[in-house]
Design a protein that fits this description.
three-stranded antiparallel β-sheet, 3 strands, 205 residues, 8 helices, elongated
Length: 205
C-alpha cells in the first residue's frame, strides 16, 4: 500500500512488487514524492503481550550478517528513491518476524524524537558497531545517506563472503587433522597392542 504526492495531489493505492525496495523504485519512476509505503498485509498489526515483548527484547540487539546486509542495502535503495527514513524502517518492522524488530522500533522512536540515524544506531552497539555508525554519520554529513548505505551494504557483503571463504578453507585442514589423530589413536590403542600380543605369543611358542 502506498501514498504519493504528485504535483501537490495525494494519491493512494496498491502496487505489485517483489519487495519494498522494488515497490519504492517503481513509485519513484512514476514521479512524485512518496509519503507512505508498507506491505498490504501487515504482521505489525499483530499485538504481543507485555511479557512477550520483554522476552523478544532479550534478543532484539541481535542481527545476523545476512539480515544486516539486507537491511543496510535495501534501506539505502529506499532512501535514494525518496522514501522518508521513518517510513523506510517501518517497512522492515512490518516484514520482520524476529526479535530485532523491537530494536528497529527503537530506531524509529529515536528518529521521531529528533535523533539522526547514526545517533539512534549508536544506542545499539551489538547490532551496529562504531565503524558502521561512523560511516552512516559521514553519509549524513555529506547529504548522501542513501548512497552511503548502499555502499556500506556492498562492503558488508564482500567482507561476509571473505570470512565465509576463509572459514571454509580452515575447516578442511581441521577435519583432516582430526581424522589423522583418530587414526593414530586407533593404531596406538588397538593395532599396536594386538601386534605386541601376537609377537609375544609367537616368541613363547
Amino acid at each position: 500500500m502506498y501514498k504519493v504526492n504528485v504535483e501537490g495531489k495525494e494519491t493512494a493505492g496498491v502496487i505489485e512488487a517483489g519487495d519494498m525496495a522494488e515497490a519504492s523504485t517503481k513509485l519513484q519512476e512514476r514521479g512524485g514524492y512518496i509519503l507512505m509505503l508498507k506491505p498490504r498485509f501487515s504482521w505489525g498489526q499483530i499485538s504481543f503481550s507485555g511479557w512477550a515483548e520483554r522476552l523478544m527484547g532479550a534478543v532484539s540487539e541481535h542481527m545476523s550478517a545476512a539480515d544486516k546486509i539486507f537491511f543496510t542495502t535495501q534501506l539505502g535503495v529506499m532512501l535514494k528513491t525518496g522514501l522518508p527514513i521513518v517510513e523506510a524502517i517501518e517497512a522492515f518492522v512490518e516484514d520482520k518476524r524476529t526479535g530485532s524488530s523491537i530494536m528497529l522500533k527503537g530506531l524509529i522512536l529515536d528518529l521521531k524524537g529528533g535523533k539522526r540515524l547514526s545517533g539512534a544506531m549508536a544506542a545499539h552497539p551489538k547490532a551496529f558497531d562504531k565503524v558502521y555508525v561512523n560511516v552512516v554519520r559521514a553519509g549524513e554529513e555529506m547529504g548522501n545517506l542513501g548512497e552511503t548505505l548502499v555502499y556500506l551494504g556492498n562492503q558488508l557483503k564482500r567482507e561476509h563472503g571473505l570470512v565465509t571463504r576463509v572459514r571454509s578453507a580452515l575447516i578442511y585442514p581441521i577435519v583432516v587433522m582430526t581424522a589423522m589423530v583418530a587414526v593414530m589413536g586407533f593404531v596406538v590403542g588397538f593395532v599396536i597392542p594386538k601386534i605386541a600380543e601376537f609377537a609375544r605369543s609367537s616368541g613363547a611358542s
